Amino acid sequence: MPTSVNRDALSGSVALVTGAASGIGRAIAMTFARSGASVALVDIDSGAGTEVQNAILSAGGKALFCQADVANRRDCVQAVSKTVATFGGLNILVNSAGIIRRATVLETTEEEWDKGMAVNVKSIYLLSSEAIPIMEQSGGGVILNIGSGWGLVGGTRAALYCASKGAVIQLTRAMALDHGQQNIRVNCICPGDTDTPMLESEASQLGLPGGSLQEDARERPLGRIGIPEDVAQAALFLAGDAASYITGTTLVVDGGGLAG
Question: 131 with 80: CB under 8 angstroms?
């Protein structure tokens, strides 16, 4: 499992990470901070978001928590503005916020559909439209969108989630084509099952006992469930100079689940 971090990999960079209060977003924010970035933490959960901020500050890093509903344009504008005002710019945007509803189309209400698409897809449009002009002014930047293996293949009772994550992958490709000339790289990371609160929520929605989805992941080629830090290390690579010629790609981080 990943443990080491290059403490200079993102030195001098400013990153904004959504969904930063827990799970994959939290791991990315913590990893980026340990790698030298100043990190703006964006989440609707103020209590957990503040805890992450304090953890980074206590470790000697630089962090700022911004409470925001990422599906709301005004909140997104304020989060980006506060980030730039505090840290002097914005070089990396990580769109990690997401929600899941385990249901067929027949079981999904229109309200649930609209909310899921807003949080999982619209938020990327809102934040990117604010971040791209700032990145362009500074000579370039990086946008990382967190998709899912279910954006590449279908899953049962996950119609909304599959549709939204498929949209994230295609949006990533379109943005990479549109903004490469501004030296803005746009890539997507597609995790498989990862041991996060969202996975436990899935089990609950499906009426499964706690820990059952983690146990199922043992059938993957690498024989274990993913952890948030697995995804964070992939994000660190794509955000850094080592990936300077990579854009428009989808990186699957799933322990080999989609290999066969």
Answer: yes
Q: Which of 32, 65, 87, 161 is catalytic?
A: 161
C-alpha distances (whole Å) from 29 to each of 50, 53, 140, 191, 209 are 13, 9, 20, 16, 30
For the chain, which residues make up each domain, given as ranges? 14-253
Residue 161 annotated as catalytic: yes
Class of domain 14-253: alpha beta
Q: Tell me the per-residue pLDDT of 16-64, one tens digit each, with 9 for 90 and over.
A: 999 999 999 999 999 999 999 999 999 999 999 999 999 999 999 999 9
Number of residues in the chain: 260
Rounded to two decimals, the pTM is: 0.96
Contacts of 82 (CB under 8 A, 6+ apart): 40, 64, 66
